[in-house]
């Protein structure tokens, strides 16, 4: 299924565009109509990013057999070494 002209090329491109939109909106210099258009585009980008991350999570879960574990933190690694 081909992407529409307004679809980002990649997750990273979507995040980059979303960051630019946030900066533009935070500047407070946009006319109302432009701000609304940027907001609408931002919502679309956010949904795209959330869907992409959800898909990635599903793929990881499939690869790990739903047995995901947390990475050890620095403090938990230190505790493991103390007992060694």
How does this structure look, described?
This protein is mainly α. The protein is built from 3 helices and no strands. Helix 1 runs antiparallel to helix 2 (32-64). It is elongated.
* Class of secondary structure makeup: mainly alpha
**How can the largest sheet be summarized?**
none
Number of helices: 3
How far apart lie the N and C ends? 54 Å
What would the average pLDDT be, to the nearest integer? Answer: 83
Radius of gyration: 20 Å
Shape verdict: elongated
Top keywords for this entry?
mainly alpha, elongated, disordered N terminus
Secondary structure blueprint with pairings:
Elements: H1 11-27, H2 32-64, H3 74-82
Give a summary of the structure in a few sentences.
The chain is mostly helical and 84 residues long. The chain has three helices and no strands.
């Amino acid at each position: 299924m081909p992407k529409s002209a307004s679809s980002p090329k990649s997750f990273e491109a979507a995040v980059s565009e979303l960051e630019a939109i946030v900066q533009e909106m935070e500047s407070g210099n946009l006319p109302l109509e432009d701000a609304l258009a940027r907001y609408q585009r931002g919502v679309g980008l956010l949904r795209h990013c959330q869907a992409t991350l959800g898909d990635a999570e599903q793929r990881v879960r499939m690869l790990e057999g739903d047995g995901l574990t947390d990475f050890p933190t620095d403090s938990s690694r230190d505790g493991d070494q103390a007992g060694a």
